[in-house]
Amino acid sequence: MNNMKIAFLLTIIIFMTGCKSNMIDPKISLPEYVTLNIDTLNNSENKTIRVKAKKLSFPLSLEDLHDISILEQKYDQEENCAGLAALQIGISKQIIVFAVANNEELKKWRPDLTDTMPKSIWINPSYEPIGNEKHEDYEACFSVENATGPVARFKKIHYVAYTINGNKIEGTAEGFLARVIQHEIDHLNGKVFLEYVYPEKRMTKEEYLEMRNKAMEQEK
Q: Is 145 part of a structural domain of the chain?
């Protein structure tokens, strides 16, 4: 089995980056994730995470800055986390936090780990695909309980976003970084990755790990 096949099998989007922080305030009670599963994907009770988040205006309010701090701390407390969107913790605002580290060990398994980015907080982000080429890979999410599946994402995108200070940033992203950005912006539009996965291709995380382990054994 070649490395491209292994990379296809090994990706779960929450596996990407160790992001432990010492800046978490122990006095603050962080919100739980808003979650759904395969059975409740289209239930009306999921309104919090299935509606489009509100755009923010600049300068940001004290409430906005507080919400950003809560989102960042929630992100920092996770051992393995590529990114989080505010909607995932019940905050209906267009805010995401994410990072894609330059991980040499992971590059052995992920040929699409070409572009990297340090931890970033983006306000009102959006993207446009560059070309029509897509790549299919497995994703999972803190807001989708015990499910994973292959999702086709654009390989290269042009993004636009704003910093906390209201400064506009834009650029291009390719490979896994582009996937992470698309995944998080989907959240802000009320979408979860499971919508893109055909029912017959959905599997539990345990089933995915079993498939991955078999692939790794065959590679030895």
A: yes
